[in-house]
Specification:
It is built from four helices and four strands. The protein has about 170 residues and is α+β, with helices and mostly antiparallel strands. It starts with a helix and ends in a 12-residue tail after the last strand. The relative contact order is 0.13.
Length: about 170
């Protein structure tokens, strides 16, 4: 029994060493681009999330103007980072909108749970045949929950900004 414990302890030490010293590092440019993207994970850019979109930009499979939630500010930041010319948002992927969060009209919700799986950030709480609600602080405003709702009880409301997020108009 003691021998078995020693063998497992040795394996645990080896796994700990390997996890710390042999981990694969990410592409630094991909990390920088991903940090500039809005992290809505909405898929409007035709990629399943912001990180795959960032990787596609690095690999030359996508342009910098495919992110409607990021809009002109993100395009400008990406152009500056990559040393490219600033371009306008490609209308094929959508249009830039003001920041918004989903809101469930609770008296209309039937608890079908069809809105929960499409939410990329798990911002919707609820159970089958129970009323659902959105955690506004977690909602990215991707609107992916609206289409599956059979009773149209999900609406988008303007996101409330905190004083730390206020910016003066230039």
């Amino acid at each position: 029994m003691l021998l078995l414990c020693l063998v497992f302890s040795l394996f645990a030490l080896l796994l700990g060493f390997a996890a710390k010293h042999l981990q694969v590092q990410g592409e630094p440019l991909t990390e920088q681009i991903d940090a500039l993207l809005p992290q809505t994970q909405c898929g409007q850019c035709n990629f399943p999330g912001c990180r795959p979109y960032a990787q596609a930009i690095v690999e030359g499979r996508a342009e910098i103007n495919q992110c409607p939630p990021g809009g002109d500010a993100t395009i400008a930041a990406l152009a500056d980072l990559l040393g490219r010319e600033r371009v306008t948002l490609n209308a094929e992927f959508g249009e830039q909108k003001a920041a918004a969060v989903a809101f469930i009209i609770e008296q209309d919700c039937i608890g079908c749970v069809k809105c929960i799986p499409p939410c990329p950030v798990d911002a919707i709480l609820g159970a089958s045949k129970q009323m659902h609600t959105v955690i506004a602080a977690e909602c990215t405003g991707c609107e992916l929950c609206i289409a599956p709702c059979p009773v149209d009880c999900i609406i988008m409301r303007p996101a409330h900004t905190k004083p730390s997020q206020w910016q003066w108009q230039r």
